[in-house]
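ok trying this again, last paste got cut off
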Amino acid sequence: MRENYTLPRLYVDADLTAGAGLLLDRAQSHYLSSVMRKSVGDSLRVFNGRDGEWLAEITDVNRKAAQLKIGLQSRPQTTPPDIWLCFAPVRKARNAFIAEKAAELGAARLQPVLTERVQFPKMGLEKLELTLIEAAEQTERLDIPALVDTVSLGKLLDEWDPKRALIFADEASSNTEWEAKPALEALPNCPAPAAILIGPEGGFTDAERARLRDCDFVTPVSLGPRILRADTAALSLLTLWQAVQGDLG
């Protein structure tokens, strides 16, 4: 219920049922006691990505440990639109930005992809997972986007399920040789399950572009006359897909 939205909200990796007890980890206990200044008897909301959202009451709390008692379910579990974001790693701060905003915009899965022009191939997946959790907590999501290991573009395409449309943001689409439909024109033909593919800061090579366009499951799209930064392109195309095929429409 909307009146509960002012209560703190935490993701927990535990089963949630009415009347169950729950021991929070040290970081979350510190957050409740020292940051939120919560005490015994205060309420909060918890979710685990599979059992919906539940009200909980603090039964014991200090900086090192906090215990909760699970109350009533406040929201049942729902399934988000089945849209993935496949993106070439960029600078560290930009990767975190992409992850945070993709979670806010409802991406179900994030897939880092190595292409020939990637300049920053190493990614701290553990830190990105924390970013996804924080974004889900703050945006009322009932699930946490999946974050999977980095793969090469070739491996991604070799193992792709052709039942899932791969929407390829082609920065060279204004070139007549690589022409692509505007995103808003193409996206009505790309319902879920679908995925978005965004290249690195240097763009895709001609060989990569040709390989992508040879795949029957790939739909090249244009994001307009301007060359967008990788993070801008990712969020722009994800927003457009959600508006046309997802839960923004």
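PB: full thing came through this time. The longest strand covers residues 66-75.
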